[in-house]
Amino acid sequence: MQKNLVLASSSPYRRDVLDKLGLAYRSKKPDIDETPLPGELPSALVARLAEAKARAVMHHFPNALIIGSDQVAVLDDEILGKPGTKSNAVKQLQQASGRCVTFLTGLTLLDSATGKATTEVIPFDVHFRRLNDRMIDRYLEKEQPFNCAGSFKSEGLGIVLFERLDGEDPNTLVGLPLIRLTRLLEQAGVEVL
Q: Any catalytic annotation for residue 70?
């Protein structure tokens, strides 16, 4: 019997990325506390939260493969959260100017029938151009990425902020690494092609 596929997320960005695979799935918002534990490293945080999101919805889907994902942007070993406001976004982009920000994405595939979960952490490096205040202000006015970690949308105009990108899968920047997800789904018996 084919297992249902579930995305444990309410993110429209993650849904847009998962739609690329052309697979039928449902999505369910997980209700979890995303507060980092004392002394928790960013990679441990995203791994823990990706699995926690999948486990938070598993009781709704007893025979499903559940995808959990979580992402943080890291600069100087500090997590850059979602800015929320323009002034915070300005500070984040000024801080990132001319530097490399690493995005860490935790990805979990959980079989709700067995409780077995596979979790990976996928890094992706974004090398920013040198940005002046005018560039930052014009970008933020046009795209208003205040709900995006790192204060940009790579799938939009944010691409002009970068010198280069280093990573195995550009979808990782949007919060769902499809290359790794495809491998995990195939290992679980889902034929993507």
A: yes
